[in-house]
Amino acid sequence: MTESEQELLTPRQRWLHNIIYEADTFAGKCFDVCLIFMILLSTVAVMLDSIRNVREAWGGVLNGLDWFITIVFTVEYCLRLYAVSRPINYMTSFYGVVDLVSVLPSYLSLIVPGAHYFSVIRIFRVLRIFRILKLAQYLSAADELASALIASRQRITVFILGVMTLVVFIGSAMYVIEGEENGFTSIPVSIYWAVVTLTTVGYGDISPKTALGQALSVLIMILGYGIIAIPTGIVTAELAAGKRAEQTSQACPVCCAEGHDHDAVYCKYCSSKLN
């Protein structure tokens, strides 16, 4: 996106963009604070509505509050689309998807009873608090973690496939050792036990009874501690391998992208000039 394309934004769109997307201005900060207050209020209302006694006494009030907040969020979503020159970029971004999904449950409840309880997904919108408090270093840390996970995805995939192979083998072995008379009624059930044991969860609903089965269980438990540490080491190595420059919470007025360096003049994603 060039500067000439960015200039297609009208003064009203720029004004809305500074309020809705920017957290560096007083108006923008007030807008985000009010938004987060309504998000928390909506989430609490949905939780309270799931309590029978509260629902019977205050169901009408809670339902009215939910619809009021849903309408406000719908209008806000439309304004966010209007305030940028490339609405599709906002719609396909993480925040754009969360904003859209957060208003759908209430409308879906008109067709599917009880669907409005999924409105608790609005709590994810509270992530904007990092922008309001100018905690750009936390946004940068989140980007670093995401980049490390992406960079190590192949090794993590190989690790997961290896673990899946291991639990299938362990489950099959326990099925042969213990048998149906000891609760291991099938190989899938035995695999379930292997996963629970290997991850050190230990529900206790199924346990080996024979000496050989118990000995194998001990080995699996010890192995589980080592396996849990492997993904942590993979991601940690990627985190140590790369560092990112200091970033701000400023959002591009064209593509809505964040995570720009503190001295950036142009967006590193679409090349538009930053405010």
A few lines on this structure:
65% of the residues lie in helices and 0% in strands.
Give a description of the structure.
The protein has 275 residues and is mostly helical. It folds into 2 domains: 131 residues, Voltage-gated potassium channels. Chain C (Four Helix Bundle (Hemerythrin (Met), subunit A), Up-down Bundle), CATH 1.20.120; 92 residues, Helix Hairpins, CATH 1.10.287.70. Helix content is 65%, strand content 0%. It is built from 11 helices and no strands. Helix 4 packs across helix 6 and helix 9 runs antiparallel to helix 11. It is flat, with a radius of gyration of 25 Å. The relative contact order is 0.12. The model has no long low-confidence stretch (mean pLDDT 81).
What are its keywords?
2 domains, 275 residues, Helix Hairpins, flat, Four Helix Bundle (Hemerythrin (Met), subunit A), mainly alpha, single chain
Strand content: under 5%
How do the helices and strands follow one another from N- to C-terminus? HHHHHHHHHHH
Question: What level of helicity do the residues show?
Answer: 55-70%
Tell me the number of helical segments per DSSP (H or I, 4 or more residues long): 11
Low-confidence stretches: none
**Computed Rg:** 25 Å
Q: Return the average pLDDT rounded to an integer.
A: 81
CATH uppermost class of the largest domain: Mainly Alpha
Count of the domains: 2
| Topology, number of strands | 0
CATH topology assignment of the largest domain: Four Helix Bundle (Hemerythrin (Met), subunit A)
CATH 2nd-level architecture of the largest domain? Up-down Bundle
**What would CATH call the homologous superfamily of the largest domain?**
Voltage-gated potassium channels. Chain C
Calculate the terminal CA-CA distance, rounded to whole Å: 15 Å
Global outline:
flat
Largest sheet properties: none
Structural class, from secondary structure content? mainly alpha
